[in-house]
Amino acid sequence: MIPKIGILAAINNEVTVSMLGAYGSVIEKSGGLPLVLPYVEDEKIIDKFIDTCDGFLFTGGADIEPSLYGENKKTTCGETQPYRDKLEITVLKKAYKKDKPILAICRGEQLVNVALGGTLYQDIKTEYATDILHIQKEERYSPSHEILIENNSPLYTLVKKNFMVGNSFHHQAIKDLGGELEIMARSTDGMIEAVWSSKKRYLRGYQWHPERLFDIDSDNRKIFENFIAESSKTDK
Ligand code: MN
Question: Which residues lie below 8 Å from residue 218, measured CB to CB, with a gap of 6+?
Answer without folding.
Answer: none
